[in-house]
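Input record, target 12 of the design panel.
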């Protein structure tokens, strides 16, 4: 470890930490994505690929909350 460039290592660690998202932010982003996808499925179904629709199954009786939990 004597030949390790500590300054370079600290800089790399700083860069990684700046690029890391907090758990709370990640949850917020995931919730937003799920809400958007649920809205698209219910309101713009022509934009949903056949594979995605098949994976979801029948959503005709689902609320937005139920779609988000699928």
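The sequence produced for target 12 reads:
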């Amino acid at each position: 470890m004597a030949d390790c460039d500590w300054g370079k290592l600290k800089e790399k660690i700083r860069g990684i930490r700046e690029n890391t998202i907090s758990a709370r932010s990640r949850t917020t982003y995931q919730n937003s994505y799920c809400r958007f996808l649920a809205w698209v499925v219910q309101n713009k179904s022509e934009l949903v690929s056949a594979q995605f629709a098949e994976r979801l199954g029948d959503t005709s009786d689902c609320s937005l909350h139920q779609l988000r939990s699928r």
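The chain has a mean pLDDT of 85.
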